[in-house]
User: Which sequence fits this backbone?
């Protein structure tokens, strides 16, 4: 009988900012490196402060939404990175929203809400977005622009955040003749 001994080297990539996150995947290595270079990313994806990109956000696939398992955290980092870095024409409002969250997460009054377009009869287009008291109007404007250019276009009469009307718009009437 012959006996052989093999030595196997396993490389594990561990975050310096969030040491509980480690992986042996080279794809995860790149995500960990990126998130460590931008520590706010770890705060965004592990807390619930950001309704758009935080833990429990509906933007993430089911198993990754609420879990604090390293794999779930890395899936949220991957999704956030994609939204932030995707080509501009792919998902314009999602990319804008990711950039907003990245830039404003530590601002005073930062929070998120469920934005809805109301056409006078029904709520129509919707998205969870983050905002601050100072930026709320700019976020609403961005949401309205997205609604006006979406595949399903409806006249916008009101904008709701968390089922509360926050802006009424003038009804556009067609010109006669």
Assistant:
């Amino acid at each position: 009988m012959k006996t052989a001994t093999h030595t196997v080297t396993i490389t594990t990539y561990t975050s310096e900012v969030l040491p509980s996150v480690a992986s042996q995947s080279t794809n995860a290595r790149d995500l960990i490196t990126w998130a460590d270079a931008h520590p706010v990313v770890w705060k965004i994806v592990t807390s619930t402060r950001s309704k758009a990109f935080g833990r429990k956000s509906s933007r993430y696939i089911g198993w990754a939404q609420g879990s604090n398992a390293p794999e779930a955290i890395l899936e949220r980092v991957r999704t956030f990175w994609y939204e932030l870095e995707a080509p501009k024409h792919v998902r314009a409002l999602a990319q804008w929203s990711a950039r907003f969250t990245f830039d404003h997460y530590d601002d005073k009054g930062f929070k998120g809400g469920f934005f809805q377009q109301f056409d006078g009869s029904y709520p129509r287009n919707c998205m969870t977005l983050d905002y601050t008291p100072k930026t709320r109007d700019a976020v609403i404007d961005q949401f309205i622009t997205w609604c006006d250019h979406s595949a399903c276009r409806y006249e916008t009469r009101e904008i709701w955040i968390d089922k509360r009307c926050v802006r009424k718009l003038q009804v556009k009437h067609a010109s006669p003749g």
